[in-house]
Specification:
Elements lengths: L19 E3 H5 L16 E4 L3 E4 L18 E3 L8 E10 L2 E7 L8 H4 L7 E6 L4 E5 L2 E4 L7 E7 L4 E8 L2 E8 L16 H13 L4 E7 L5 E4 L4 H9 L1
Antiparallel strand pairs: 1-12, 2-3, 3-14, 4-13, 5-10, 5-14, 6-7, 6-13, 7-8, 8-9, 10-11, 11-12
Length: 241
Amino acid sequence: GTKADAESQDPDSTNSLESEAPRDYFLKFAYIVDLDSDTADKYLQLFGTKGVKRVLCPINYPESPTRFTHCEQVLGEGALDRGTYYWEVEIIEGWVSVGVMAEDFSPQEPYDRGRLGRNAHSCCLQWNGRSFSVWFHGLEAPLPQPFSPTVGICLEYADRALTFYAVRDGKMSLLRRLKASRARRSSSLASPIDPFQSRLDSHFAGLFARRLKPAFFLESVDAHLQIGPLKKSCISVLKRR
């Protein structure tokens, strides 16, 4: 299929949804993600344009100025710069991070600065084999929710927000919404400072001044994901390859 044109919406419409919302609402913003082979690190094996797995032996990809050289990452084709977009990822195995990265971020950055969520040009949801967390600009915020193999990602340019959901049985359960908070009134009572939210307040809006791409980081040697959702039979076939 072709990539769907994402239309703008009321910036507060998604914010008004309850923590569990119908998946059908988000499907009208569906964005077809195809993995860009010219960005894939040499330790990532692609299965068409939808699946990717980290491998031990390097793959002899052709040289490309957009290819990651120090991080096991791959980007989606195309770039997003307005409107609302929604896509889903199926975590098949291992430690993975899913999110967005600025189109103009250098793929030659060293590992400590080039990883998804470890800089001001990207942010992500990470599954580390035990728990979820979100990363932005080098800071991590742990999440209490249990594992969900299907993750929904909603990018809203009008609201300058990125939201992650656990997708189960046609329902969306909120994992975390990343957005700079509105300025507090000076008369409001002081509250404990959340370093992660403070970082969002200072830098997150700047991410939306750039064209963004869906981004994927496969952290463990057995990491494997698919642009989803997938049926169980499809997952079984991929894991046997």
